[in-house]
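Repro:
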Amino acid sequence: MFGGFQPANEVDDHRQNVGGYLDLETNLSRAFLVNVAGRFEHYSDFGSKVTGKVAFRLAPSNRVTFRGALSTGFRAPSPSQSFYGATITNFVLNTQTGQPTPVEGGIFPVSTLPAQALGAKPLKAETSVNLSAGLAVSPTERLTLTADVFYVTIDGRIILTGILGGDGVVEILQDNGVNNVETAQYFTNALDTKTTGVDLTGVWRVPVAEGHRLDLSGAFNWTQNRIRKVNEPPELAGTGAVLFDPFVSGGSIALEKERPDWRSTVTLDYGRGAFHGFLRSSWYGKYTTSQLSGTDCPDCVQTIGSAGVFDAEVGYLLPGNLNLSVGVRNLFDKYPDRLNPDNSFGIFLYPQPSPFGYNGRFVYTRMEFTLGR
């Protein structure tokens, strides 16, 4: 439910930014390429940032390539994160009755007195450090294998706070002229996080009869997100409110566990003349989800099992560069595990973060026209 926008939520604001980018690349030798880049940007609402990148590629032979990169980055807070405000209806669990209870809540821009009294500060840019390294190998003309690892840290990650409620929060809101809501939220640079991962790929161009094409490709990804630090504002001390509820959107379950750590795909791609088609199998690891604050609801924290889906498509290239295709996603009508009845008060049957959705089989047709072919 949505309480709507109030006259006080109206905002007329803007930002300006200018930037410059310099990229230098050269071959120090036939086998060794280096790249150095820098970027400067200035935003009228939060200041300036300088970021840079150093990268290399080493190819000691035509069949082996090493690569690596170190870079810094940033993401400016969006205007909606700085200025958005609304009145919404939240459902909280009544610990006495065990039933969902609707309460009016407010999302307050960081510049407003209620948000500042609860610890909001002007938003800063998220900053990151990115490190990656990889290897590409072609043992034969028909086979290519790659392996990459990466490590990313983000400081000052912007999230919407948990639902801040309780007598202490209501008192602060009333002291700042807000009498019509019982909970509050605002955007804040709350988290420092790290992400580590591995990407593996392989492509085999299968030997087939002349005029036919058959490619077998596979990919595997493992990615893990972890929270390094939560920046709790001192203003919430003693109110009983939790800035960062691990069970709601943006919480530690959502950031660390609500996506599979691993996923993989295997694709068979065939072509002969104007005819083409593919068959793809995608598999996803297990993950944990909670669509309701789990503090008083242990059954609301639920592990969803690993699963796989299949996609297929066939097409034909007609004269005049017109390509017609028919395909199906989730060929065998696979659904994720159902949620426990207590999860999300029984409103949702399936976990919203399911990597392949929860709508079952999808059949489609597609028509494409290519110019200048």
